[in-house]
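Subject: design request, 310 residues
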């Protein structure tokens, strides 16, 4: 090699892995502290354990640039992702530092079990606790973690929760109440109660499930006068304010407890959701207790009922 050229730089772990893979069949040696050395006719490439890589020879430029390009490509992609994540956070952080009441519900997609709606209040005195516990949308937390965290936050946060039994749900749905109307009534109920406890707050945030217009028209249809009217409706409310996330966690916890009770009572694992497996569980219950039993433990207007009884 007449034109000796040496290029040294450090690569990321990601590129390091790729280099190992790329050169694995060409390895010609392993100098001290190196992972490998490859001697090509115009370039010697040595990758060190430290992540430093050395290119020597007249082909050093070309070989080195290929990896530099790849590295910068990865870096720019990471930066893009970081920016995106930051933007999402700041967009959603508009409400984050308010003292706010938030509400959220569970059980509306589950054939078995009640609908549970909770409102809770998170202010600057409790925000840190929720951050430390990493409270977020209950859908993003495991049931185990929810079972561990919910009792802690229920001791520290003011909250109001309401459980709509299956019997009552079935009664309402027979009367023509759709799911959104039921949700609107339940959210209003817990929000009204909590907001009248005399604890100061700036905002009331509801995880949006319908348009504000429909929400209030549902309440109007039922002549509900005890209502909360100043509401900030936010989609993905759980990430906008910890009160909504905490409300979803408390609701989910109480729902899990209800499902445990049902499982114990019927000596069968009462499944969540509305899948075919849920139908199988329901069939076994019908077989043992008769179809009227479903009225007590399931949402009869779900399509599952027809499949189960046919
Ligand atoms: Mn929700």
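Subject: RE: design request

Done. Sequence follows.
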């Amino acid at each position: 090699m007449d034109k000796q050229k040496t290029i040294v730089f450090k690569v990321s772990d990601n590129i390091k892995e790729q280099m190992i893979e790329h050169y694995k069949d060409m390895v010609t040696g392993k100098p001290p502290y190196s992972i490998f050395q490859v001697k090509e006719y115009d370039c010697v490439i040595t990758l060190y354990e430290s992540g430093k890589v050395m290119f020597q020879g007249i082909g050093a430029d070309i070989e080195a640039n290929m990896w530099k390009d790849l590295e910068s490509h990865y870096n720019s992609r990471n930066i893009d992702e970081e920016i995106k994540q930051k933007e999402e956070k700041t967009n959603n952080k508009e409400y984050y530092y308010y003292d706010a009441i938030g509400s959220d519900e569970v059980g509306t997609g589950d054939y078995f079990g009640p609908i549970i709606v909770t409102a809770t209040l998170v202010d600057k005195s409790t925000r840190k606790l929720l951050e430390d516990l990493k409270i977020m949308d209950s859908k993003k937390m495991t049931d185990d973690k929810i079972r561990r965290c919910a009792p802690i936050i229920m001791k520290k946060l003011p909250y109001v929760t309401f459980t709509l039994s299956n019997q009552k749900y079935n009664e309402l749905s027979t009367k023509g109440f759709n799911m959104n109307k039921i949700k609107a009534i339940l959210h209003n109920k817990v929000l009204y109660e909590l907001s009248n406890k005399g604890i100061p707050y700036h905002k009331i945030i509801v995880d949006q499930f319908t348009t504000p217009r429909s929400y209030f028209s549902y309440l109007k249809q039922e002549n509900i006068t005890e209502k909360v009217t100043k509401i900030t409706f936010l989609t993905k409310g759980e990430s906008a304010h910890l009160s909504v996330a905490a409300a979803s966690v408390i609701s989910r916890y109480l729902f899990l407890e209800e499902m445990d009770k049902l499982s114990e009572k019927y000596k069968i694992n009462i499944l969540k959701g509305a899948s075919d497996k849920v139908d199988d569980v329901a069939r076994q219950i019908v077989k043992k207790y008769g179809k009227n039993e479903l009225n007590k433990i399931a949402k009869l207007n779900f399509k599952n009922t027809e499949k189960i009884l046919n």
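The chain has three domains: 5-88, 100-259, 270-309.
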